[in-house]
Design a protein that fits this description.
- By secondary structure, the protein is mostly helical.
- It has one domain: dinb family like domain (Four Helix Bundle (Hemerythrin (Met), subunit A)).
- It has helices at 2-5, 19-40, 45-48, 59-82, 93-96, 106-126, 129-132, 146-171, and strands at 87-88, 135-138, 142-145.
- The longest helix is centred in the C-terminal third of the chain and has 26 residues, at 146-171.
Length: 173
């Protein structure tokens, strides 16, 4: 069950990144919408509405969750760059996935994700090393740097895309 839940392993943060690690993470964020699009390419509505594991979200919900999360991560990046140590509230992703927009076609989520990631990457690539050290307050984890958000965001996209790819492999899709 652990492998189904964490196909690429649990997130680990090892502190401030090197310039090379940041470039790699930014590249993962740039590629994520396309990797996700490839992961769901050719799936039927019935397949999109299949949970990636027992008790887990459906593929459709995963796609919409990734779009929601990217919107939040992008917004947090902008706030942390333009405000002194802003505080961020959490959101209940399970409740968000019950809202009507998550029943919409995944193409709409992918279009939003692609445009959003272009803008987010433009900001990330323009940031100085000091910008990555800027802090914010996460409602549950406390003070964090943008470096943490970058690392988590890069992992998060790969983590959920791996859920879909693992399901496709298990189901022979």
């Amino acid at each position: 069950m652990e492998e189904l839940k964490y196909p690429i392993g649990k997130f680990q943060y090892n502190g401030a990144a090197t310039a090379a690690e940041r470039r790699e993470r930014i590249e993962l964020i740039r590629e994520m919408p396309f990797e996700l699009g490839n992961a769901i390419a050719g799936l039927t509505d019935a397949q999109l509405d299949t949970p990636y594991r027992e008790g887990g979200w459906t593929v459709r919900q995963v796609v919409h969750h990734l779009t929601d999360a990217s919107l939040i991560f992008y917004s947090r990046t902008k706030h942390a760059l333009t405000e002194e140590c802003p505080r961020f509230m959490g959101y209940n992703d399970d409740e968000w996935l019950k809202l009507a927009d998550t029943k919409s076609p995944v193409d709409s989520a992918l279009m939003l994700l692609e445009g959003l990631h272009v803008r987010w990457v433009a900001i990330l690539e323009a940031m100085s090393p000091a910008d990555f050290e800027r802090k914010y307050i996460h409602f549950a984890r406390g003070e964090e740097a943008i470096d943490y958000l970058l690392a988590y965001s890069a992992w998060h996209g790969r983590h959920h895309t791996a859920h879909i790819l693992a399901l496709r492999k298990r189901m022979g899709w």
